[in-house]
Automatic annotation (TrEMBL):
EC number, UniProt record: 3.1.21.5
Keywords per UniProt: Hydrolase
UniProt-recorded name of the protein: Type III restriction enzyme
Domain Rad50/SbcC-type AAA: 292-436
SUPFAM superfamilies: P-loop containing nucleoside triphosphate hydrolases, PHP domain-like
GO molecular function, one term: type III site-specific deoxyribonuclease activity
Length: 934
């Protein structure tokens, strides 16, 4: 666990068997008290309590026993539990004061036992003998007439100052509560910043009620004094019936009274009355094996808000850059000046000079919805390795890391560059839905691959169809020629003339018989292939897991699938054997095919005999024989081509369907972006108006089109005009589809066929002259056209900035501060991936920082935030759960930095560093106290 602040489920009013109103068996002996304490700790764990305050009336006797039991907690393996995982036990007292009201006095969790008697003495409480089974009736402390008196009494002891907090009973209508008629003056003057309820906020201080307005500082009669509330159970039963029944979640770094006071003062951020929602996607740790600038680094981040602070050149930005580099988060910023001075270029230089030079590597641990992922990247090679859960490290690509573990990150001044860089604007819109877009792009790629694969079949089908048409004409010509030559054979008997007349029918029968025989052969091949596939599926059946609730049902399901496969095999194998037998010599099919073959042989012999007796017609017979051979070969080829065409199916229809599928997927992707734009507009509070312009991203398509036409002689100005015209179309995507269709027609038209504007109306309308289209014709290839057709046309987001009600200007026309404020408001309203910004204050107008602070309180409930900052208000009043303080390795030497201390702002050492390092740090703490009550 990191050293920052975390939520703990608490019950701050818990009594023990010494309580006068205890229900159930008490505990008098040492053995009984130790046994009870152990039982109590176990019950706390059973009820998911992380911390309790033991608050008997005017008595500390049971606190040491429960502390000892908590310290002896063991984990599931029986080993001693880590200190950070043990039950936190705050010593406390329930006081009955002369105000009159009751209050809880809560001490630091590590407050020494030996000082308990001194506290009772300070309060003039008669200590009850330790061996007593039960406490006597409570004696009201009438000498304490106000909370100021109580604080004054306690603060007279230097060893107690700052180590306690007081929570009055503020239950509406409850016994001993401060919230009674006539108590408003006591409420107004008390130094307490929180109070406790016997029950829930919903029941005892319902939001919107009069009592709730008092607690919220909205009632002038009660001093407009705002306090935090703690739900408590007032548990006092051996059956633990009420233990943890009413609890609150409180955030601290160290379990001290000061941390509880800070929680009261920062209640929006540090107290919850229902289980708080926390980010489920977050960076858990960054480990740098070695760096010439930072040395070894091992940082554990808070899953909510981590602030990295330090002087300039101490390593704040370097830490963020290492994380982004390891997670392959490449900034979408182009070079900005001479050489590569972009954020990406600077990062590459940083890695080369500080990591590669010393053989360093960076490891980032990323929690993704409860699953730990570890990314390791080596400075020298840049190789990426990924480990998921308990698996092994595997080499991966940047794309995989980006898609699986996304972060939303901005370098210094990068946030204010969004408006002037289209790719940054697109990244701002797409980052929160990156995984949805990547899933949709995966579908697009799949459809494109299927289209590309089918297009090969389509080209083959077109070629085969063309060949069939050509061979069909050839076959008809040869048949007609043969028929004419046979008609010239005169002087033959009627029988011979009949043989010649029957010859076309004989050849047709021969072709039919050949088709029958091929069908039989294909059946054999198909059945063999089916059995091979059945065997493959059978071998691939998943193994049933060895244990689990579904094991029995899974086994039954596997057996059912296996049985179905066996039944198919049992059916097909005999059929295959029967077919092979039938086709073998003497088989049914073989015999059936042999009969017409024999008859054809007889007819062939008769035909040859007729030709032999017609020697007078030798020349015609030679020609006839040649034609018949050619016609037979043509017929065989036609049969083969028709079989190929049948095997190809209907690729033309598939092509049309896949093109429609691509268009549908493009539309769905556009809808995702449009929805995100609407969300961004809403999250900005109306400061922004984000919209998607569909089909405007033709840059890649234009580049591909120009490459396709290279060397054609078409002037560049013609392409400029074409794409300018395309961009001006009402429905540019639909127009682009028509252009692609017309370009394909240019590709498919016979070279001898002339072009007309009727064939390419869109290209012609957009200014591409027929002469240019003719030039293009000579350059277009199938592969080039297909590559062009599959270039995705992206949508372009646009932003407007609201200046007045319903009045907007171009976002780029707003000031850098206005732009950054609007964008940061959106970023801090979003849910999901971690948000990392290096020095966001540099993009903001100074007067907006305090407003950003309030956004931070809510944002860190939804997403992890990591800021590197010089602005103390973002750190202190933003209530960072973890502060990482960077410093120079040697004072004044900016050649190296290191992490000096980590912790939360309720830790004195961290507060001291903030005051020392950050200009305005002391003023930020004063503002925290005065303006926010922090």
């Amino acid at each position: 666990m990191n050293s920052g602040a975390h939520f703990y489920r608490t019950d701050f009013q818990v009594h023990t068997p010494r309580d006068a109103n205890w229900s159930g068996a008490r505990a008098s002996t040492e053995e009984e008290r130790h046994a009870y304490a152990k039982e109590f700790v176990a019950e706390c764990r059973e009820r998911s309590l992380n911390a309790v305050a033991i608050t008997d009336h005017h008595d500390f006797a049971f606190v040491p026993y429960i502390r000892q039991a908590a310290a002896a907690e063991s984990d599931v393996s029986g080993s001693p539990g880590a200190p950070s995982e043990r039950l936190v036990v705050f010593p406390g007292l329930e006081l009955t004061l002369g105000i009159p009201c009751q209050a809880l006095l809560i001490l630091d969790a590590n407050f020494p036992d030996e000082k308990f008697s001194a506290i009772l003495e300070a309060l003039a409480i008669q200590e009850t003998a330790g061996e007593a089974e039960a406490l006597p009736p409570v004696t009201r402390l009438d000498h304490i007439q106000s909370f100021e008196d109580l604080y004054t009494t306690l603060d007279r002891r230097p060893w107690l100052q700052g180590r306690y907090t007081v929570l009055p009973n503020v239950t509406d209508g409850g016994y001993g509560t401060l919230m009674r008629s006539g108590m408003h003056a006591k409420y107004k003057s008390m130094p307490c910043v929180g109070g406790y309820l016997d029950g829930t906020v919903e029941a005892k201080a319902k939001p919107g009620s009069g009592i709730s307005r008092k607690f919220g500082g909205q009632d002038a009669n009660w001093g407009n004094k705002r306090i935090a509330l703690f739900q408590t159970s007032d548990s006092r039963s051996r059956t633990f019936t009420d233990l943890g029944k009413y609890s609150s979640w409180v955030k601290w770094a160290e379990p001290t009274a000061e941390a509880l006071r800070q929680a009261c003062l920062a209640q929006e951020s540090r107290i919850a009355h229902t289980q708080p929602a926390l980010p489920t996607i977050y960076i858990e740790r960054v480990h740098v094996s070695n760096s010439s600038f930072l040395g070894p680094v091992d940082l554990v981040f808070n899953r909510q808000y981590t602030a990295i602070i330090g002087g300039r050149g101490t390593g704040k930005s370097t830490i963020l850059d290492y994380i982004r580099w390891c997670l392959a988060d490449n900034p979408a910023v182009a070079p900005t000046g001479d050489g590569d001075t972009s954020a990406d270029g600077r990062r590459r230089e940083l890695v080369a000079s500080t990591l590669a030079a010393v053989g360093g590597q960076v490891e980032v641990t990323f929690i993704l919805n409860g699953t730990r992922h570890v990314v390791r990247r080596t400075g020298e090679s840049g190789q990426l390795l990924l480990k998921v859960g308990d698996g092994e490290f595997t080499a991966v690509t940047e794309d995989l890391v980006q898609s699986l573990l996304p972060v939303h990150a901005y370098s210094q001044k990068q946030l204010s560059s969004v408006a002037v860089r289209p790719n940054e604007l697109t990244r701002f819109i797409t980052a929160p839905i990156l995984q949805d877009l990547q899933a949709k792009d995966g579908q697009v790629n799949d459809a494109a691959n299927r289209l590309r694969q089918n297009y090969g079949s389509l080209q083959r089908a077109r070629s085969v169809s063309h060949d069939i048409e050509r061979l069909g004409l050839t076959g008809r010509s040869l048949s007609d020629q043969a028929e004419h030559l046979r008609s010239l054979l005169t002087g033959l008997s009627a029988e011979d003339q009949q043989v010649l007349a029957d010859r076309p029918a004989v050849e047709t029968s021969r072709e039919t018989l050949t088709a029958f025989r091929r069908t039989g052969e294909q059946l054999t091949t198909a059945m063999a292939a089916l059995l091979d596939e059945v065997d493959r599926l059978s071998a691939g059946l998943s193994q049933v897991p060895p244990a689990g609730a579904l094991t029995q049902n899974l086994e039954a399901a596997r057996d059912a699938v296996s049985g179905t496969i066996d039944a198919i095999r049992t059916t097909v194998q005999p059929a295959q054997q029967a077919l092979e037998s039938s086709l073998s010599a003497g088989g049914t099919l073989a015999s059936a095919l042999s009969a017409p073959e024999a008859e054809l042989t007889t007819l062939d012999a008769q035909y040859e005999d007729v030709k032999a007796r017609s020697a007078i017609h030798a020349q015609q017979l030679d020609q006839l024989s040649s034609i018949e051979e050619r016609r037979k070969a043509t017929a065989d080829q036609l049969v083969s081509l028709r079989e190929q065409l049948a095997t190809l199916g209907n690729p033309e229809q598939v092509h049309a369907m896949l093109r429609q599928e691509l268009l549908r997927l493009y539309a769905e992707r556009s809808a995702l972006l449009a929805q995100q734009c609407a969300t961004v507009t809403e999250l900005s509070g109306g400061l922004l108006k984000a919209e998607v312009v569909r089909g405007r991203g033709f840059q890649q398509a234009e580049e591909r089109f120009r490459a396709l036409a290279a060397g054609s002689g078409v002037r560049a100005a013609k392409f400029d005009a074409l794409f300018l015209g395309l961009a001006a179309e009402t429905a540019p995507l639909e127009t682009w589809e028509r252009i692609l269709t017309e370009l394909e027609q240019l590709l498919l038209l016979d070279e001898s066929t002339g072009l007309t504007t009727e064939q390419t109306p869109t290209l012609s309308r957009l200014g591409l002259a027929m002469s240019d289209q003719e030039r293009l014709r000579t350059k277009i290839t199938v592969d080039a056209w297909l590559d062009l057709a599959l270039v995705p046309v992206r949508d372009e987001p646009t932003f407007s900035y609201r200046t007045n009600e319903a009045q907007y200007i171009r976002f780029a026309s707003a000031s850098a501060g206005q732009q950054a404020t609007a964008l940061l408001r959106v970023l801090l309203s979003q849910t999901g991936m971690p948000l990392m910004i290096d020095q966001p204050e540099e993009d903001l107008d100074s007067q907006i920082v305090q407003e950003v602070v309030t956004w931070l309180w809510e944002s860190k409930k939804r997403r992890q935030i990591i800021f590197a900052s010089h602005n103390p208000n973002l750190v202190v009043n933003g209530d960072a759960e973890l502060v990482v303080v960077c410093n120079y390795r040697r004072a004044g030497d900016q050649s190296g930095g290191h992490v000096e201390i980590t912790g939360a702002i309720d830790v004195k050492g961290v507060r001291d560093e903030i005051t020392r390092v950050m200009e305005g740090g002391e003023q930020a703490f004063k503002l925290r106290r005065d303006k926010y009550g922090f």
